[in-house]
Predict the structure.
Amino acid sequence: MISFEDITAAAERIKGNVIRTPTISSHALSKATGADITLKLENLQAVGSFKERGAANKLALLTPEERQRGVIAVSAGNHAQGVARHASLLGIDAVIVMPKFTPAGKVVRTRNWGARVVLEGESFAEALLFAQDLQAREGRTFIHPYDDPAVMAGQGTCALELLEDAGALDMLVSPIGGGGLLSGCAVATRALRPDVELIGVQVEGYDSLSAFPGPATHPNGGSTIAEGIAVLQIGKAPDEVIRKLASKVLVVPECAVETAITLLAEGAKQISEGAGAAALAAVLTYPDLFRGRKVALPVSGGNIDSRILANTLLRAMLRDGRILRLVMEIPDRPGVLADISKTIGEAGGNIIEVSHQRLFAAPSVQAAELEVMIEARDPEHAALITKALGHSYIVRRA
């Protein structure tokens, strides 16, 4: 198992090449959750994720001969960018194998850090097999994203900074994908603050530690917005540390991750990817566990696709009643649309989108069906708008 000295040595080794990210208290999140929330903003790293800590430490430890042969990594995003950036800083040739489904933005950013990107495999497992074959053929050093003591020690430097800056804490909550972040942070935390409770978080579908401290299970996988922690089985070395030092592992549903992304953006003014918001999702899912406690959460990554972020915010607004979708049966005559717009405006609503269907959905040739999407302040305001329209038209929620 890695030692506290491994982590302090890593902190000295990567100093100046990795940002010491801010640690902030969030009044908005504390009010929303009932806990006293502190955020460690790893989304502000140069590559937008804590992953660069482990990559920087591992690459700095390579021998001159290993540097000469170059390195290879497999990743769908954040680890790829961390390895690419720090290989470039050290003058090391880097190849990154990424699955074919990797979002274009992450591919471009990885290339922009100077690495050669190879898109191969329909899944992470297939990409890993290709990378291992390429490593053998080209003699490169493999930089594992989590199951490596040097990488784990690098990730643990996040906790060194957090514990120095945050003051008194009751809990540190960390997402678990491969387990590198929680394992490194657990060693640092147990050495400096043995009274702080360590809690890991997995997302449904990738919840191999759902029976913790019992044996690992075999999850089903599938699509998730928390793709950064979409790992079916955590690494062997991180698993050993987590089982020895962590208190519990919580599993969160997909909708809680979406809500956490929205709350971070609107409340804390921080952009986070799904994996980066998983710790907050746990606080939202298990409020009784955290209420009244001083809780530290790493916002572990901010590399969310812009389209996914926009859709997530809109879905959250739909769920909490700030976006209203109404379908109305209306007479097909001049002036009706103007009257509906006036009614919505006078009620304080903002029309986002309108769909007017005469031919196929309307119950009569003399009628039309109108679907309108409206922005409201809150559910009560949405009800007021619906009531105002209901005085003159048949209205139902879509």
Notes: The mean pLDDT is 93. The first strand starts at residue 23 and ends at 25. Residues 257 and 281 are 5 Å apart (CA to CA). The radius of gyration is 25 Å.
